[in-house]
Design brief:
The protein is of the alpha/beta class and 131 residues long. 35% of the residues lie in helices and 21% in strands.
Amino acid sequence: MAKRGIDVSRWQGDIDWKKVMTDYVILRAGYGRELSQKDKKFEQNYAGAKGAGIPCGAYWYSYATTVEDAVKEAQACLECIKGKQFEYPIYFDIEREQQFSQGMSVCDAMVTTFCEALKKAGYYVGVYCST
């Protein structure tokens, strides 16, 4: 049985969640290393999707180029999603050339660092990766 989902962020504006036809949604929680980089529509989108009965996951758009950056991103992500319930994973979104140019071992270490921190906090995790 195929399921169809969408991902959303502040770039979709104000969403009328009662009109959304999807099996699940992956919400952008934020990006970067700082809590101030929480997606401006994350809380609104989370409440709207939950209110419409749509199962949710989330993603964190990464700018990390070091393991230390990935640690900070994991901490910021965890703070943003604290107290929320997700039926789908929390994804580490790594897709910037500045990251890939660091080499496979650095990218692997960043992904592992972020994902292990979230797993340790009790979340299911996933990786979205694209060049």
